[in-house]
């Protein structure tokens, strides 16, 4: 006879999903769900799709590529390109599969160019994490994907060797590739000094730095104790094109939530909690 063991952690996981969806629905977010199995047509696959395919759990059946959902924002962007969705704000929950492992996400998306609506949603998420999950973010790393193209130029940012050196934060490799570029002096500085020097060395990016300041104020008002800039951030996919934020809990070395601004059918902002 088969017996089942009561699993309180599983019950709490399901309760948390319902609480999260109900909380955001109560603030005017539409609840959305998408298939965990995505389908791809080889001729229509984008560069982002092809680049991510090695990380996906995928298979081919009857000439069609199938893959387990790799990322909720990616799935939503693909859905928005294919169908029309009227929602201005949406909330979701469910699993994602990445390089052979499964994690679960709670997330929200704001399909609006209004920065105030985007920052309001971010504050709501941090409030939920604090009150319902007892896991208030203590640290935030914030960046803007326009920074590096403005500092280095589009051609250098597209160079795979430079991108690899940036992702590895290898100053020796970057010095070989970039020479005595001012970026090299900034990487080793304290975050506060980086921003000050950026304003002086690259006056053309002051508008972008102003955007980051606004988001930093939102994070601090929501109770995040420390906010640090990351001037070497590179977008994982081409549609990410604005502010990007990673949230960390006390003593955590991996983010408990991340997200940022992107372009789907219009400007948008999304954040996902990993739990």
TrEMBL record:
Superkingdom of the organism of origin: Bacteria
Domain Class II Histidinyl-tRNA synthetase (HisRS)-like catalytic core: from-to ranges: 11-270
Chain coiled-coil ranges: none
Pfam families assigned: tRNA-synt_His
InterPro entries, sorted: aa-tRNA-synth_II/BPL/LPL, HisRS-like_core
Name assigned to this protein: Class II Histidinyl-tRNA synthetase (HisRS)-like catalytic core domain-containing protein
Lineage: Bacteria, Bacillati, Bacillota, Bacilli, Bacillales
């Amino acid at each position: 006879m088969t017996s089942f063991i009561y699993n309180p952690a599983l019950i709490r996981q399901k309760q948390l999903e319902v609480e999260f969806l109900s909380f955001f629905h109560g603030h005017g977010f539409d609840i959305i769900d998408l298939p965990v199995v995505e389908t791809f047509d080889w001729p229509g696959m984008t560069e982002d799709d092809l680049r991510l395919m090695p990380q996906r759990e995928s298979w081919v059946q009857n000439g069609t590529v199938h893959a387990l959902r790799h990322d909720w924002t990616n799935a939503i962007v693909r859905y928005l390109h294919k169908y029309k969705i009227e929602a201005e704000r949406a909330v979701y929950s469910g699993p994602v599969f990445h390089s052979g492992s499964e994690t679960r996400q709670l997330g929200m998306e704001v399909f609006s160019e209004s920065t105030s609506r985007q920052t309001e949603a971010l504050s709501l998420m941090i409030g939920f994490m604090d009150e319902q999950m007892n896991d208030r973010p203590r640290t935030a790393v914030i960046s803007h994907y326009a920074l590096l193209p403005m500092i280095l130029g589009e051609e250098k940012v597209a160079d795979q060797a430079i991108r690899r050196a940036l992702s590895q934060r290898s100053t020796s490799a970057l010095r070989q590739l970039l020479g005595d570029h001012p970026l090299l002096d900034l990487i080793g500085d304290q975050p506060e000094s980086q921003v000050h020097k950026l304003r002086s060395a690259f006056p053309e990016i002051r508008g972008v730095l102003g955007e980051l300041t606004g988001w930093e104020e939102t994070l601090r008002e929501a109770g995040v104790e420390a906010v640090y800039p990351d001037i070497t951030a590179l977008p994982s996919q081409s549609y990410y094109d604005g502010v990007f934020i990673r949230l960390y809990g006390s003593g955590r070395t991996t983010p408990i939530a991340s997200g940022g601004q992107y372009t789907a059918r219009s400007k948008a902002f999304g954040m996902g909690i990993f739990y």
